[in-house]
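Revision sheet: structure tokens.
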Amino acid sequence: MEGRKLKRAGVIRKIIEERERVEASTGKTVIQKLIYFIQSRGLDLDYRFTLYTYGPYSPELMEDMDIASENGYINMVYNPAYLGYVISSGERDIEDDLLTKEEINVIEEVMNNYAGYSAKELELRATIQFFHDRLEIPEKDMIPEIKEIKPKFSEEDIRSAINEMKEIGYIYQ
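Predicted:
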């Protein structure tokens, strides 16, 4: 694996290890959202995200998950009961010096905030982050804009997620 792909695999692996530590199941949607947050917090992995069904999505990240799995850094197993993939740490370790201290700090900050969140909780928050960062939606318009594209979330769920994200300094600082 070339350097950039290896670094990306290292970040994916670190996310999975943190989720395993808090005993949270991990699928592809969870990885997509957590990587989106990691990038939005300053660790540039050069993924391009667009808004998709379950929030920010990068096809290149999907490719990288497949590559990381093929190289033994992660295990991806389709689980029909889960209606998706369950991802866990692979047998092959990532070198300790692959990520800088600053990069590890960004990953740990995001994981400290979101390690135990479900895919659905991350979907809402990553969509809010996308609207804030990319579309620059003013705070007063955020709830109706999110509700329009994510009708499955109540206004109270959206309001609560916005307030939580403001408290941790992710939006509207």
